[in-house]
Amino acid sequence: MNFNKEVRKVKGKLFKNINKRKEEHGAVLVIGVLFLTFLLLLAIPFLFQISNERRMSEKSYKAFAALSMAEAGVERAIWELNSGDVYTWSGSSSLRTMNIASFLTSDGETMGSIDIQIEDPEGDTPVVQSTGKVPYIGTLTVDRTARVELWKGNGSSYLFGHGVFGDEGIELDSNAQIDSYDSSNGEYDPNNPGANGDIGTNATHLGCIYLSANARVYGNASTGFESIPEDIIITKPVSTISGEKLALSKPQPMPSIVPPEGLIFRGDYFLDGGNQDIIIESGEYTSFRIQNNSKVTIASDVTLYITGELSMTSNTQLEIADGVNVTIYLGGSFVQESNTQINNLSMDPTKFVFLGTDSFNGDMDWNSNSDFWGSVYVPRANVNYNSEADFYGAVSGKFVDICSQATLHYDEALGDLKIKTGSPGDTFIVKSWHELVPPVGS
């Protein structure tokens, strides 16, 4: 009996210890679960924050890519405007649009799409609005838009891309010749003339470029935009165009010339009786006349604006000293008798230019018997080159006639020279740029 009682006591203690340990294990499990729950509650906001930051980072990257694509769209629009291809876009003269459905990376992967529109594409200040779109979530995209105002500047243009350019036509009389050289590489070499003596016109009528017998053009001949050169260029027997017959990719601008303001008014200039004079200052003249064996030397960098007549009678000279830069604006008329000389002693065509304003709209008869180094741009006047002396430079006018036996050597350096016109240039550039603020949440 006592033995059994002791056994029951031992069993009771064992079961009690076992139950106690179970209770302890259960408590630990509960505490562990509570601790994990606590950690999870702490981690959930952090996990959401990581996810949100990842999305924000991805969206920020895509926004940057979209803005870069929008800028690429602006560059495309400027290129199209300056090349003339904007006429192939959808729309009309008030609004042109283009969609680039798949804008590719350098690796050939599609980055997104670009929507481009040009307001007033034929005006002087078109506005480009370009939107880059990058896929985001599902059908959603990240969009960024750039809005850019363009203009053509207010002062300089490349006026001499051709050796001879006649807005309404060009005629070369018999035995006239046009070739080229580059004064930046040295003097003209008659034994090795260049073949870039290009001629061109905006005209599209039959005979707008006319070469008489044995006239020679060592370069290309370009007729007006959308013309068929082979059908309208006339070449008489033995005449030569060594290059191609082309149509201009767009109309060639003939910007107006606006003289600079602030020139000192000097009234009439008159030199007679075999006298000589030196000019060292700029000025505005109502007339400029040199007569009877007289000689005028321009000895420093000057700008002359002659609102009336520039005239040179027989045996007179206008001399440009070596190394100086001279610009003469013509606003009235140009009278030059035979046996007159206009001598540019530097023999550098980039240093001397005649520019005709809109009021200089008659004929410019060139009768000098001396070789000439310089350029002539008179967009509203006809140029008749009546001299058999060599002309080194370039000529651009309303209509240009190169007389029999005349030789013009186009200075290719003039093609890279911007001339101050005082009026808008011939290519669009950015005037203002800003990003349109995207809607909240986009």
TrEMBL record:
<dbReference type="InterPro" id="IPR055729">
    <property type="entry name" value="DUF7305"/>
</dbReference>
<feature type="region of interest" description="Disordered">
    <location>
        <begin position="178"/>
        <end position="197"/>
    </location>
</feature>
<feature type="domain" description="DUF7305">
    <location>
        <begin position="276"/>
        <end position="416"/>
    </location>
</feature>
<protein>
    <recommendedName>
        <fullName>DUF7305 domain-containing protein</fullName>
    </recommendedName>
</protein>
<dbReference type="Pfam" id="PF23981">
    <property type="entry name" value="DUF7305"/>
</dbReference>
<keyword id="KW-1133">Transmembrane helix</keyword>
<keyword id="KW-0472">Membrane</keyword>
<feature type="transmembrane region" description="Helical">
    <location>
        <begin position="26"/>
        <end position="48"/>
    </location>
</feature>
<keyword id="KW-0812">Transmembrane</keyword>
